[in-house]
Amino acid sequence: MTKRIFITGIAGQDGSYLSELLAKTDCQIFGLTNQKYSNNPVSLEAIKKLGGKVILIDGDITDTNLLGKIFKDIKPHEIYNLAAISSVSESFKIPERVMEVNFRAFKRLVDEALIVVPKVRIYQASSSEMFGKAFAPQNEKTDFMPVSPYGESKLRAYREVVLEYRKKKGIHICSGIMFNHESPRRGESFVTQKIVTDLSKVKLRLLAHLELGNLDVERDWGFAGDYVKAMYLILNHDKADDYVIATGKSHTVRDFVNETAKNLGLKIKWRGQGEREEAIDNKGKILVKVNPIFYRSKELNATIGDSAKARKILGWKPRVNFEGLVKMMVKAAFERYV
Asked: Across-strand partners of 288?
């Protein structure tokens, strides 16, 4: 049987990798993408290479009438909800819009889908930002303490839709509590892509220096391609449940800069502290400097995910390590400018 699979937010990093994975199976993919806000040409190009396996639908996840029509037309067997306003810093500027897209629109999507296909399987992309101030390592039993509107919106979607609907309606709805995952297809608004892109420009003398915020922020960074495999395993498991997906290792922003510089053949040395910290080359030229404008008003503690449950039940584990992730991102970024 050819599965009909509906993916929201298909034009993002995760949507493109997930589409490539699913395209290897017997399925027809339908992807919702909002052309007004889609700004990831690399991911879109990857999707277009899949040809007729993917049918793109232009629209907004907040358009309930459109969702209802789509579900009546395609009657999906599976839904992956990846659509979201995912910028944590941006969420402080537009908290109501973030709640509308990340929580309320998702709830309406599920309600509309259940009217047409009551036995549909639904995957929700949850986030480690739900843990907020909770101390690491974080797993499925860790208390949620979000500090951003983004984290709060994801937590409401998890509690009021995923958990509530699964318990009271008995539907197959599950989620992956995803820790930070990156790739060469990561959007330019994210710090990892900013680091590899701007340091590549510095290397090619297209930019004077890279500017960053808090260098001591620690994150558990993995490869998006590995994480979409976890999404697939979560949705296709016999029992609907929730899983933390992470590498279990954390690195600072400074570590990411160091590894990027290493891959670019830049020898850097750090000097100064706090807002005055900077990285220089062997001639004393400043290549990286701190700019307080990029500091977050509410910063998380170190995030380290404990994915023992996913490893044991799903047999999932990350394939790409931190060094491999940075290497592939640097290569892609540098090649865009040479």
From this structure: 210, 279
Write out pLDDT tens, residues 61-101: 999 999 999 999 999 999 999 999 998 989 999 999 999 99
Both 275 and 166 in a single domain? no
> Which residues on neighbouring strands pair with residue 173, listed in sequence order?
122
Q: Would the pLDDT of 38 be above 80? A: no
Domain that holds residue 76: 3-183+222-248+304-319
Average pLDDT over residues 311-326: 98
- Is there a single domain that holds both residue 212 and residue 90? no
DSSP single-letter state for residue 138: B
**Could you say which DSSP state residue 273 is in?**
-
Mean pLDDT on 307-334? 98
User: Where on the phi/psi map is residue 60: left (φ > 0), alpha (ψ -120 to 50), or beta?
Assistant: beta
Structure tokens that stand for 276 in this block:
């005055």
DSSP letter for each residue of 68-98: HHHHHHH--SEEEE------HHHHTT-HHHH
